[in-house]
Design a protein that fits this description.
The protein is mainly alpha-helical. The protein has eleven helices and no strands.
Length: 194
């Protein structure tokens, strides 16, 4: 698998701003892997970070049609809000572009929007990196550093999911069941392990 080819593919399917976000997420994911599990190859963080939003600019009907045509599992919340399906579609597309792509990579990409206790260590890395990458304008640098300064990946992930739940609540929406399950898992001391 050639990272340059992945980058070229993504650059043809997203706008410049989103490409910058994907590259920044890839760098953040690589840094998190280096910090929390240096024995894991940084390539995994770079790949999932770069690829995670490859289908983000698809229309809602295109995402829904793709999932229906390819038997991609959809959560009820994703069916109601098809833009959330870009993670599931991106994970499925990775199989076409990288035959034999690791399950952990696809699982990470699949759950980067909603989060899930089943997203695994790499999924937690991507979930956090996507939220905290430096180009995100909704966080000031002090808040970002404070979140990244927590002692474990699970502590950072819990802070991210709590921020997301607050945002959802303030928007008058209902959180996804997988997001609530992730929050509960982390509140109870759950660990993603490696």
């Amino acid at each position: 698998m050639d990272y340059i080819e992945l980058d070229q593919y993504v650059s043809k399917h997203v706008c410049d701003k989103r490409l910058a976000h994907c590259r920044s997420t890839a760098s953040q994911a690589e840094a998190l892997l280096t910090r929390f599990e240096p024995t894991l190859e940084g390539t995994a963080g770079r790949v999932v970070g770069l690829w995670h939003d490859v289908a983000r600019e698809w229309g809602e009907s295109q995402l829904l049609d793709y999932c229906l045509s390819n038997n991609v599992h959809m959560e009820p919340e994703e069916m109601r809000h098809p833009m959330l399906l870009h993670g599931a579609v991106g994970a499925h597309l990775l199989l076409s572009f990288v035959p034999g792509a690791e399950d952990a990579w696809r699982t990470a990409i699949r759950w980067h929007t909603l989060g899930s206790p089943d997203m695994g260590f790499l999924g937690a890395v991507l979930f956090v990196a996507d939220y905290l990458e430096p180009l995100r304008s909704y966080l000031d640098e002090d808040t970002r550093k404070a979140m990244l300064g927590k002692g474990t990946l699970e502590e950072i992930c819990l802070e991210v999911v709590q921020q997301q739940l607050l945002h959802i609540q303030l928007g008058g929406k209902s959180p996804a069941s997988s997001t609530l399950a992730l929050a509960e898992f982390l509140h109870k001391g759950g660990s993603f392990g490696t």
